[in-house]
Amino acid sequence: MSYRSIAIDGPSGAGKSTLAKRLSQELGFLYVDTGAIYRTVGLAARARGIDPADPSAVAELLPALTITMGYGEDGLQHMFLDGADVTEAIRRNEVSAAASKAAAVPAVRDFLLEMQRRAAREHDVIMDGRDIGTVVLPQADLKIFLTAAPEARAERRFRELLERGQQADYDQVLAEVVERDRRDTQRETAPLRRAEDAVTADTTSLDLEGSFQLLLGLIRERLGPLEGGGR
User: Fold this and answer.
1) pLDDT, tens digit (0-9, with 9 covering 90-100), for 104-160
2) Domains and CATH numbers, the chain
3) Are 204 and 152 in contact (CB under 8 A)?
4) Beta-strand (E) ranges in the chain?
5) 35-74 burial string, b = 16+ CB within 10 Å, else e?
6) In the beta sheet, which residues pair with residue 201?
7) What contacts 147, CB < 8 A, 6 or more positions away?
8) Could you tell me the pTM of the whole model?
9) Angle between helices 170-186 and 150-163 (to 10 degrees)
10) What is the spatial distance between Cα 42 and Cα 125, in angstroms, rounded to a whole number?
């Protein structure tokens, strides 16, 4: 059986996870949040007092980790670290910075690559991240580069943190967004970049519903009606 794959890449705060999750529910695809996988590595490094930017230390940590994905009855992805559900813990703001640093370590990307590709071999998937269309799934049926202005992405992240009951300062969040963009685009291993055959979708001036309709329209235009697709 041949499965279909949709790759959504873009910078931090562009809305990739939120939109990919909703699209997967609309189309009957499995949603794979690759950012959550890297966040799990970042969380593991922090919990063990390891600098996630230290390639040697992180590489030595990896063989001892057991990282798995699971899906609840609602189809939502859960991350497990050594058997413990860390789905909520990996969303803390400090883990975001650790994940970005860990993702720049070549050994981490190699360690997690097969997990991501196996999901696409076994299911219809919508997968989002930084290098899905360029490295993880270069043969994806549709590649979307989702972006928005840094200020708009910072505002979304700021509101998300407040809604979760976390303290946040907009200026600090904006600075973190800009710094993460710099790291993600300038790292040597799998930098964030638009695949040559990707469609760019800019959501700076769109709300969540407008962004969803934009991406759903692109998918229907390129791949035809997919509602009811199997997992």
Assistant:
1) 899 999 999 988 999 999 999 999 988 999 999 999 999 999 999 999 999 998 998
2) 5-223 (3.40.50.300)
3) yes
4) 5-9, 30-33, 67-71, 77-81, 84-85, 125-129, 142-147, 199-202
5) bbbbbbbbbbbbeeebebbebeebeebbeeeebebeeeee
6) 146
7) 10, 11, 14, 200, 201, 202, 203, 204
8) 0.81
9) 120
10) 24
